[in-house]
Amino acid sequence: MDSTPRVTQRLILPRLILPRVVIQGMVLPVALLAVSLAAAQTQQEKRFSCGPKPTVSVVNEYGPIAVHPGTGNQVVVRYVLHSDKVEVDTNQGGDQTGDRITVESHLLQGATGETAQVDYEVLVPAGAVVFIHSNSGTLSAEHLTGDVSVEGAATPVDLRGMSDGHIRVRTLSGNILLADIRQVHVVANTIGGDITMRNVDGPMVEVSSNNGKIHYDGDFGGMGSYKLNSHSGDIDASIPATASFDVTATSVKGQVDNDFPLQPKSHSITIPEKGHSFVGVAGRAASSVFLHTFSGKIRLKQR
Asked: Which secondary-structure segment (H or E) carries 33?
């Protein structure tokens, strides 16, 4: 038997030194902080089976909400939390009017506008009634066929490709864009934002802005009633030569400019004042158009 003593060698590995960061008195490795942040920003998903035409409400304090058409009788809610200072509460109920699905961001103690942000993507069935709200981040929806209500503060609103139903939009200073909206009742109001409409028509289109500009690019179709009103902002409408409408345009303190070939209107409650108002008819006057501003400028032009 070999009695020679054995020498055990200890393998010494080089020490890995991680960069560190101090947060509220605690020293944390940057790698650990990055893992925590990545976990907080992982996309999560919830699915809700529902009947036809459910009511879907999404209330977000900070962050964007995007709504798209889904498939089948199912609502899908995908969201990304930007920190552990916010969580998402959901509820599903219903009554004789149908299913109601509510999604709401819940701020926890110490949350700020940045840490409380949640990014939402929502898929809804055809005909769903949708309500979305956020104080920041774009509010958008496309190709929906049910009623849509949107509320925001400084939040831009972008709605496209809607048909049928009603659209209601209200912001404090967020700009509003409506594009390719067909045969929809539209009511849009903002205090300080601009309103832009491209190819929007329906039985009733009423938009107003206190201080922002209003731009309409379309044909005033659908045998509808169009009312564009601003207190101090300009109103600009660009119309094809084939459009059919009667128009009354008035700026109390500002100027009006018309280069569209209008015919005289046989009966009008407004007496035109040179430089401040005009009335007229195009085609068979299928739609009625009212343009009004207190101190802004109005321009009607042919494209």
From this structure: helix 30-40
